[in-house]
């Protein structure tokens, strides 16, 4: 179970809030890095905005006293109209600076959203396949993606909190100067509401955390029931009601939890709100009583009532905003934890560059492998070599470890036991990124990028995206050029149906585009992991014959269920239950009468 999930509700809500505040420094660092100028100007402008209400109220006090003097028959102060002008100027300035604050907030929001989204993408790319095969990771990744952009409200709340605290302090000092009881009455009224709001905010976080897996299931059901890929089976198998009913069960469960929390918050929050109102009016009545007793003049009365209103309002906002920030910080737990995640497959400090050229090749020494989170050993004591210039085919039934070997030799995973050597050096001693530059691989479940035909090939070696000639040569090698010739806009044609003007390809056409990526890399090791499964027998034979021709002098590893195509390999390795049980060329294996010969005859019989 996710440790974060275990901790929610297991400890004191207040302790969780305080612990969550540790999330703030890294987020503030991200905020500062996203736009230092917008942050600096935002702070400066908010300091000015926070101070202006006090100045306006103080000037208003003198204006009202001046009017009261005139009503009593006294002469008008020579500075009266100057004060009026100052108040007008302060209010105009307040309006302009407030708009400037909104503008800087908008700039900061855009900068932060872009910056943190890029950081999430970069971090996700750094993590290895071990992480991606953990279901808990997907819950965390989903929350991190949401938190990366949905926490904009918290970013703006931090700016408002600074402004509210300054305004509150200024007016509270003024009230305390008049009478400390005024501040105590306001605080006594606001504190219960603050505690209540904070408590329910924490319950809301815990609820959202619990609901994440259910919401992911709902998103999946929504996607399956309404996607182009699933439309055929949904209609033919009558799955619409099946998916809808499952979605409705989850939606009703979430709705009931949401309503229960909202109902409780309505009742308790309403009662606590009454206490806050009584605290405000207690201070207000006290000022009225002191004024009637002659303790304050009319100007002071107006100023103090304004100060009570401002202090009360801002004090409530300070507590509410601070509570909101603390509880929003709880939601940042997964974002911060996501950024702190480290992959298990990574380059060591001072890692070696991949050998160029490779002289001795790859060697698996007594390698065993078990996928994380499972107990089944996929490879057992597997020993295998792949020499420079050699083409090797891996043969075996599904689940015997063929694709696992590909993932290990490309160091997408590290062995559970044993070691893999390249030119006599442990694969873990090489730079992962540099090693990948020397390997071109196409998996059976290759990506279909809904971009231009040129970009679909260029992703095989993105540094060649501007090298049109190299891309066209790779397309010719894979026969993808025959596909491109049929497209209206050639290499500029958008593929797939996601975007307007896109053209969908057949499975075989997509595979030729994917093969072009491998050829574009000009790698020392080329791997085909059943990428031609959607091709007919003739087309697959043509692809493999060209593959054999183009891999002369290079290391090549190929996997195919069609035995007629693997005959081109220099050596065929037969796997069973994760072990190497036979190896040799086609003639040798056929004459031995082992598993390979049996499987070949069974497949050949189906074509007779």
Q: What is the terminal separation in angstroms?
A: 54 Å
Question: Could you give the order of strands across the largest sheet?
Answer: 6-7-8-3-9-10
Q: What overall geometry do the principal axes of the alpha carbons give?
A: elongated
Instruction: Report Rg.
Output: 35 Å
Beta strand count? 10
Total number of distinct structural domains: 3
Please, what is the average pLDDT? 79
SSE-based structural type: alpha/beta
Largest sheet: 6 strands, mixed
Query: Would you tell me which CATH topology of the largest domain applies?
Result: ABC transporter transmembrane region fold
The CATH top-level class label of the largest domain: Mainly Alpha
Query: CATH homologous superfamily name of the largest domain?
Result: ABC transporter type 1, transmembrane domain
Per DSSP, the total helix count is 23
Percentage beta strand: 5-15%
Range of helix content:
55-70%
Which consecutive residue ranges, at least 5 long each, have pLDDT under 50? Answer: 1-11
- Per CATH, the architecture of the largest domain is Up-down Bundle
Structural write-up:
With 608 residues, the chain is α/β, with parallel strands linked by helices. It is 64% helix and 10% strand. The chain has 23 helices and 10 strands. The chain has helices spanning 3-7, 13-20, 24-34, 36-71, 80-126, 129-132, 135-150, 152-178, 180-226, 231-236, 240-292, 298-331, 333-340, 402-409, 432-437, 453-458, 468-478, 480-484, 507-520, 537-550, 563-566, 586-592, 595-605, and strands at 362-370, 377-386, 391-395, 417-422, 425-426, 439-443, 525-529, 555-559, 571-576, 579-584. The strands form 2 sheets. It has a 6-stranded mixed beta sheet with strand order 6-7-8-3-9-10, with helices on both faces. The longest helix has 53 residues, at 240-292. It is elongated. The two termini are 54 Å apart.
